[in-house]
Design a protein that fits this description.
GO terms for molecular function: ATP binding; DNA binding. 45% of the residues lie in helices and 20% in strands. The chain is α+β, with helices and mostly antiparallel strands. The longest helix is centred in the middle third of the chain and has 27 residues.
């Protein structure tokens, strides 16, 4: 470097892009001639770069009046002097060299673009007007948006969550920001592009960590299962000891410590130092098959010892010793079978949970009946098959339909819901298939039907059982032919729509009665999903209650409330004819009426609080030695028991859910006077 030559750049525009290309071209020629490597060092900040690197030279932005040094990696000064003399010149270029220089610039730009495209992370570059200039292939893959759509648009129109316009406005960047883009979870670094203390744009680099998030969720499930299995091992009556391949004890449960009269301090010690040789020996610690024998403790108790090898990749990695007192074997056999079944159940539940995609995980509940239904629906989402969701009103059929859609490959296309019961029969055909202008009175313009609107996506036909038979026939044709005709139209329109239907009607009974087409039933019932009523998944009521409390609090800007155990018990005892929807309404009402931070029994409706007593009344009326009571007998008994319990017409009326005048009239009718 001490042999370098100092030059002051006199060119009025400094070393801009085309001049930089000339410098690089001349530098390469000189290097080839003198067999050396030439370097440029900017004096003001000691930045050093190869003289033949176009991108590095452009990014250095050397201006008129700046001083630079030219030096070489060899002893020969001729190359340095030749290069320095060129840099001291006026940078004139003749027409014949322009094409070569422009070609060099273009090749470097193309190389930069190739670099951008090969980056595994998403890359978005904006100019100072918030317009996207670069949108690489990784960005396309992660966002699901093509570069043709994104480039030239403002960033907030394409991906508002990146908030790059704020980076341009403030000049403040952020690193390690975790956020969602569509269905993907990404880590984003974003920052301003600053040149000469002026913000010239912004850049965002983001990495897809969706798979890492999924693995993290699965790992938590494995940890949960491991904890449950450890709890099982600690609570079985069998003594369990685990020994690794180096004969070191790695685990002792409490029963083993009691049976073999050893302590938890034995963990980490050599097994031969802890257990007597009649139980474990060098030979038995290397067995390849299970062995069993009986030993006697000092007090005469006989103990059954079971030694099993632990194999991995055809190599013995240790042994497991099981110890149990013979006096307990029969009882313990039953217990082991019970716990084995429980372990299998937990593993199955974990597998089901792992298999569910993210939209299904948003459905609240842990009951087996719900998991079974969601597991079927999750598998259905991987296909284009028609799905029929059955279940009582309020069980979440629409939620499951949406989860199927948003877990499928159609997730980025429309989800269109049609309530067949809410639309008059004479308008349903136009609503589903659309109509042409003038096809009937009032059809003043063409209208697209729901099937056309759902093209490429999913149509959800709710309350399908309320559709009349003429419309059933037309729906059957669509399912068979995959094409529609608008009302009053002659043109056949091909569609690609996935159909999900739902009903709480007994379709099989309707078929027998002639109210529902059997052929349509078989077309719809390809994958049946049966949603369990809330009374069959009462273990989910605490979870659902907590969820709705938080939801109502957020919606109304309340402070979330707790619910007392007694109030929760009332909710669990109730039969919930309105299912989850009814529970949500009860929670919202109770939070609104409650005057303190707890939802108590007194905040619940009387028909829920009195539910247990009403069931006892019904039991009394039916417990009559084989006699089936008449309706009047049941009514009389209910009125009588209600009046005896609540001691007033109004109290009895609230418990029975009727008007107090009706109770008084019924009491007179049945001559009930003493209560």
């Amino acid at each position: 470097m001490d042999k370098g030559v100092k030059i002051t750049i006199n060119y009025d525009k400094g070393i801009h892009t085309r001049i930089a290309a000339m410098v690089v071209k001349r530098c390469q020629q000189i290097m080839d001639k003198y067999k050396c490597q030439l370097y440029i060092r900017r004096e003001k900040d000691d930045t050093v770069l190869p003289g033949n690197s176009l991108l590095a030279l452009i990014s250095m932005r050397i201006r008129q009046g700046e001083s630079i040094w030219v030096f070489s990696d060899s002893e020969d000064e001729d190359g340095v002097n030749d290069f320095a003399n060129f840099l001291k010149g006026s940078f004139t270029i003749n027409q014949s060299e322009i094409d070569e220089v422009d070609s060099l610039i273009q090749n470097n730009v193309l190389a930069s673009e190739k670099i951008f495209e090969s980056i595994a992370n998403g890359l978005i570059v904006l100019d100072e007007k918030n317009v996207i200039n670069v949108f690489n292939k990784a960005a396309e893959r992660i966002t699901g948006i093509s570069a043709k759509v994104a480039v030239g648009k403002k960033s907030n129109e394409i991906i508002a969550s990146l908030q790059l316009q704020e980076v341009i406005a403030t000049g403040i960047g952020q690193t390690g920001l975790k956020q969602k883009i569509g269905e993907k979870v990404v880590i984003t670094n974003r920052g301003p592009i600053i040149i000469d203390n002026k913000i010239m744009g912004a850049v965002a680099v983001f990495q897809d960590i969706s798979e890492i998030e999924k693995l993290s969720w699965e790992l938590n499930g494995v940890k949960e299962l491991k904890q449950k299995l450890e709890n099982i091992l600690e609570n079985v009556d069998d003594g369990i000891c685990m020994v690794d391949e180096k004969h070191v004890i790695t685990y002792l449960n409490r029963p083993f410590q009691r049976i073999m009269e050893v302590s938890n301090k034995s963990i980490g010690k050599n097994v031969f130092e802890v257990l007597p040789p009649d139980i474990i020996s060098v030979e038995s610690s290397h067995i390849s098959e299970q062995s069993s024998f009986i030993v006697k403790r000092d007090d005469g108790t006989e103990i059954m010892i079971n030694i099993s090898p632990v194999s991995l990749d055809e190599s013995i990695k240790g042994i497991i010793l099981l110890a149990k007192e013979l006096t307990q074997i029969e009882r313990l056999m039953d217990r082991v079978q019970e716990l084995s079944a429980k372990t299998i159940f937990l593993q199955e539940q974990l597998l089901k949970k792992q298999e569910l995609s993210k939209p299904f995980q948003n459905i609240i509940g842990r009951s087996g009946a719900l998991f079974d239904a969601l597991n079927i629906a999750s598998k259905a989402s991987e296909t284009n098959s028609t799905v029929l969701i059955r279940g009582e009103s309020g069980t979440g059929k629409e939620l499951v339909a949406k989860a199927i859609h948003y877990s499928s490959h159609r997730r980025n296309n429309p989800f269109v819901r049609v309530n067949c019961a809410a639309i008059p029969a004479n308008l349903l055909e136009s609503e589903l298939f659309g109509h042409e202008r003038g096809s009937f009175t009032g059809a003043i313009k063409q209208k697209l039907g729901k099937f056309e609107l759902a093209n490429g996506g999913t149509i959800f036909l709710d309350e399908i059982g309320d559709m009349d038979k003429s419309m059933q026939a037309k729906l059957l044709r669509i399912l068979q032919e995959k094409e529609i005709e608008r009302v009053g139209g002659l043109k056949t329109i091909t569609i690609d729509v996935r159909v999900i239907a739902a009903t709480n009607s007994p379709l099989e009974v309707m078929i027998e009665e002639g109210n529902f087409r059997q052929d349509l039933y078989y077309r719809l019932n390809v994958i049946p999903v049966m949603m369990p009523p809330l009374r069959h998944r009462k273990g989910d009521i605490p979870l659902l209650s907590q969820y709705f409390i938080q939801k109502v609090a957020t919606k109304n800007n309340y402070q979330p409330k707790e619910i007392t155990k007694s109030a929760l018990k009332c909710l669990e005892d109730y039969r919930w004819p309105g299912n989850v929807r009814e529970l949500e309404n009860i929670i919202e009402m109770s939070m609104t009426l409650s005057n303190d931070s707890m939802i108590k029994v007194s905040d619940l409706p009387q028909y829920i609080v009195g539910n247990k007593d009403n069931k006892e009344m019904l039991k009394v009326t039916s417990d009559m030695e084989g006699h089936i009571p008449t309706l009047e007998e049941v009514e009389r008994k209910l009125i009588e028991l209600s009046l005896q319990k609540y001691r007033s017409f109004r109290g009895a009326a609230e418990a029975l859910g009727i008007n107090h005048k009706t109770v008084a009239a019924k009491a007179r009718k049945y001559n009930i006077s003493s209560w």
